[in-house]
Amino acid sequence: MKLKKITVTGGAGYIGSLATRALLDRGYEVQVIDNLSRGHQWAVDKRAAFSKCDLLDRALLSKSLKSFQPEAVIHFAALIQVNESVNQPELYLRNNFEGSRNLLECMKENSISKIVFSSTAAVYGTPESIPIEEGEPLAPVNPYGESKAKTEQLLQHYCQNHQFAGTAFRYFNVAGAHPDGTLGEAHEPETHLIPKILEAARRGEPVKVFGNNYPTPDGTCVRDYVHVMDLVDAHLLALEHQISRKFEAFNLGSERGFSVLEVIRATEKVVGQKIAIEMNERRAGDPPVLIAQSTKATRILGWVRKYPDLSTMIEHALQWHRSCFKTRA
Ligand SMILES: NC(=O)c1ccc[n+]([C@@H]2O[C@H](COP(=O)([O-])OP(=O)(O)OC[C@H]3O[C@@H](n4cnc5c(N)ncnc54)[C@H](O)[C@@H]3O)[C@@H](O)[C@H]2O)c1
Fold first, then answer.
1. From the CA of 187, how far away is ligand 1's center (Å)?
2. Close Cβ partners of 169 (under 8 Å, ≥ 6 residues apart)
């Protein structure tokens, strides 16, 4: 039976706003729950019901869910900056883990048992083998990754003990924007590589690279990039697939790695301009290589990526970057 009503937490943020739009475009009714601490009111789709609510405010959260009565929740809301989490670990455990626990409890109170949860490659820490398979032990090396790994474990308990159907997607590096260039990434501060390179190019400033002595072909870190619209598609597939009451974790990546220097060179080609580099020391806790094995999502959910090329992700991000800058300049 096709679901009709979905609550999206974090729907004022980058991935949540694009997921909300995709759900609405496909005929779902959507409620967005977001405290706007890091997201933007302008990013909340006008067609969605919006509840300005903090996941830590349990009474309001339960009331919001009760008023909308969704059949499932897609849970994007979180704080996402690794460096911030290292400096403020309690903030991350409270916001991401306690917030998720509240959400699961409120869902239980309101008899909602389907959830798709945004996890991250950071749950693997520095993995033993590459590409990383879902069976790799969870060994996060920073409080952000820890908050996500703990939430996955809790979700697993809800699936075992309270008959929840839970999907955890471990995203690798999410990139790109809506292909029409009207919605994309707007983190403040921005910590992700592609928007940072685009911003450096726009300002004619050098882009900071952290570490060139990693055991990788050019010495810079290697990451796996996945287009945000492909990521969103996986969530829609998961909603339709969640028939059995159990927990399942999937990697979402492209199974290909690009070094920081390769991403800068690819961006130069798309932008049509040379981009200078400022080389810095390594940052603590950056694993040299993170590449996903993503065949499980393809095998079980039928996930097929429409935008596998890095240059397409950069082009879409550039269109968004330009339109975003124009509107707010
Ligand atoms: N962007 C990536 O590359 C990436 C990679 C791996 C995992 N993820 C995960 O994907 C999810 C979405 O990431 P994003 O890039 O869209 O982040 P984002 O910061 O753009 O959006 C997160 C949203 O959650 C909201 N939020 C945070 N704490 C909240 C709370 N306590 N109550 C209510 N709302 C709250 C924020 O206001 C924001 O709108 C996160 O869970 C993140 O951990 C993202």
1. 9
2. 116, 117, 118, 119, 231, 234, 235, 238, 249, 250, 251, 252, 297
pLDDT per residue as tens digits for the range 21-47: 999 999 999 999 999 999 999 999 999
Mean pLDDT across the chain, nearest whole number? 95
pLDDT of residue 329: 44
What span, in angstroms and rounded, lies between the C-alpha atoms of 162 and 159? Answer: 6
The response to whether residue 191 sits with its C-beta less than 6 Å from ligand 1 reads no
Summarised one tens digit per residue, pLDDT across range 130-165 is 999 999 999 999 999 999 999 999 999 999 999 999
Ligand 1 neighbourhood includes 100 CB (under 6 angstroms): no
Identify the residue whose C-alpha is closest to ligand 1 atom 12: 76
Q: pLDDT (tens digit, 9 = 90+) per residue, 192-206?
A: 999 999 999 999 999
In angstroms, what is the span from residue 173 Cα to ligand 1's centroid? Answer: 13
Mean pLDDT of 80-99: 96
Instruction: Report all structural domains of the chain as residue ranges with CATH numbers, in order of start.
Output: 5-175+227-252 (3.40.50.720), 193-223+255-328 (3.90.25.10)
DSSP state of 95: I
With a 6 Å cutoff on the Cβ, whether 251 touches ligand 1 is no
208 CA from centroid of ligand 1 (Å): 24
* Cβ count within 10 A of residue 35: 20
Tell me the CA–centroid distance for residue 147 and ligand 1, in Å.
13
> What does each C-alpha distance from 243 to 99, 114, 217 come to in angstroms?
25, 9, 44
28 is an active site residue: no
The residue contributing the CA closest to ligand 1 atom 39 is 39
Closest CA to 12 of 29, 28, 36: 36
- Give me the pLDDT at residue 128, please: 86
Does ligand 1 come within 6 angstroms of the Cβ of 75? no
List 14, 28, 124, 144, catalytic entry: 144
